[in-house]
Amino acid sequence: MHENVIRIGIIAITLIVGIPTCFYLDEALHKQAPEAKPFKWGYYFTVGGAAGNLLWALAFIYRALYAQGMHFYILLLLALIMVISACVNALAMQRQRWALVTAVILQCNPIFWIINAIYLKNRWRELAPSGAPRAAAQADGERVV
Question: Global pTM?
C-alpha cells in the first residue's frame, strides 16, 4: 500500500508540475521566436522527466535508509541514475539535441521512442546541437531558437 501511494504521488506531482510549466515555457518560446514550431510535448516530456526522476531519486534514498547489505547499494545506484537522468532532462528543456535524444533513450520505453522520434524529426532543424546555432538553418534564412 505504501509503495502505491508513493507511485501515485510521484505521478500526480509530475502532472501538476509538468502541465502548467510546459504551457508557460512554450509561450515564452513563442514570444522569443514566434515562427518556432510548438514544443509543448517536448517541454512536458522534459519537465515531467526532471521532476519525476528527482522524486524517484528521493524515494530510492528514503528506501535505502531502511535497507541493508546489497539492497542499500542498489537503491543508491538507482537514485544516482535518476539524478543523472533529471540533469539530462533539465538540459533537454533548453532544446539541445543531444540532451533530448539522451532523455528519450533513458526513458526505456519503446512507445516513447517512436513518439519522440517522430516529434524530434519534425523539429530537428530548430534544435541547437550544443546550445550553438545550427549553421544549416542559418544558411536557409531560418531563425534559430
Answer: 0.78
